[in-house]
Amino acid sequence: MSSNRSWKTAFLVASMRLIEQYQPKETQLFYDPVIKHFFSKIILFQMKFKFIRDMEILFSELMTKGAFGALICRTKYIDDLLKTAMTNGIDQIVILGAGLDTRPYRIPGIDKMKVIEVDLPIMQNIKKEKIQKFLGAIPPHVTFTPIDFNHQTLDEVLNVQQLDFSKPIFFIWEGVTPYISEEGIVSTLEFISKASSGSIVVFSYILKSIIDQTSDIPGADNVLNYFESKSHPWIFGLDPLGLTDFLTPFHLTLVEDIGASYYQENYLKPLNRKLAVSKIERIAYAKRL
User: Which of 148, 137, 74, 77 is nearest to 105 (CA)?
Assistant: First the structure.
């Protein structure tokens, strides 16, 4: 995916997280006081109006029905896993394709952790500029490491001083895998496989049937064609039925593989929120043996 398309996609995703912050506190899936700092005053003013927020959601729904619901639910899910991992003693976090992920600046206690953000240089430059503007400096617990997953490996960009492989590491790989070649996916998982026992990786993925254009999910081909037309095509997907076998060579044990039904039952139904959630994307949570 091109650098220009990457930051546009990152801001689109961030805008969905921003919209969630206007949800009443009692039904809000997650609290993100940082996300607003990545947007202009004009956009923040516009977001005060519900009809504008609704139009933004409608735009995302035209691309993929249930996109907004899936995105904010996956944010909640990864937040919960990360908080639990931190409580259990993991103090190293690597965010692969970090984009405008705000977790290093908003999760309680994360300032005591070592956080490495890995992403394209253009994304990191934009993000660092924004962070320095509202925080005054990059927090000392955060390190930025540039990479192009399709042309570089984590072995090439991360050195031994940055991570302690004798201790567990928490890897976040959110909203990235569809844009990466299979070779890039494999090399990244090979790197993760070197982490110590107890390490965790949580990653979102698109169904392989979407990539193969064999899915019976309504609108699946439309969303695939949309990203193709924007010159940042989805090129990689996985079959949930083959996920365990796919991860086994990397010494990873699948703990959970979740999607729309999980989000509805565990997040939305308890809050009485009526949101469509796309079935196109799922999240895998795996542990290093």
Answer: 137
